[in-house]
Amino acid sequence: MPAYVIVDIDILDPKGYEEYKKLTPGSLALYKGKFIVRGGATETLEGDWDPGRIVVLEFPTTADAKLWWASAEYAPAKLIRHNTATTRMIVVEGLLNAT
Predict the structure, then answer these.
(1) What is the DSSP letter of 32?
(2) In terms of DSSP bridges, do strands 85-93 and 34-38 run parallel, antiparallel, or are they unpaired?
(3) Is residue 75 part of a domain?
(4) Would you tell me which of 18, 56, 80, 92 could form a disulfide with 36, CB atoms 3.0–4.6 Å apart?
């Protein structure tokens, strides 16, 4: 079953965050992750949510997503993210053959 990592990011250091953006794509390959959304324009339709930068990643399974998040390949980028932004991140299971 596919899994999605959904991230709401408030960037505190835009220049430093650019390095994170360069490192992250390479860390996804081993875990079969891919970007679905990467910082596109957002518009709140309901509620008082005022998101920062939204990113959605897709993985084959929740286990793959968690392995990527805890991986040595992602660790350098994660450290940069922690130093340049505040983040809210979840993983959610998707639907198999949703119609």
Answers:
(1) T
(2) unpaired
(3) yes
(4) 56
Cα dihedral 44, 50, 52, 57 sign: negative
Does residue 98 lie within any of the structural domains?
no
2, amino acid identity: P
The DSSP bridge pattern shows strands 3-11 and 34-38 to be unpaired
For residue 58, the enclosing domain spans 3-42+51-93
pLDDT score for 96: 78
Report which residue type is found at 95: L
Tokens of 31: 């875990």
Asked, for residue 34, whether it belongs to a domain, the answer is: yes
**Tokens 């450290």 identify what position?**
79
Cα–Cα distance, 62 to 45 (Å, whole number): 28
Give the integer Cα–Cα distance in Å for 75 and 4.
19
Residue at 36 is within a domain: yes
What domain count does the chain have?
1
The pTM of this model reads 0.91
Residues 70-83: pLDDT tens digits?
Answer: 999 999 999 999 99
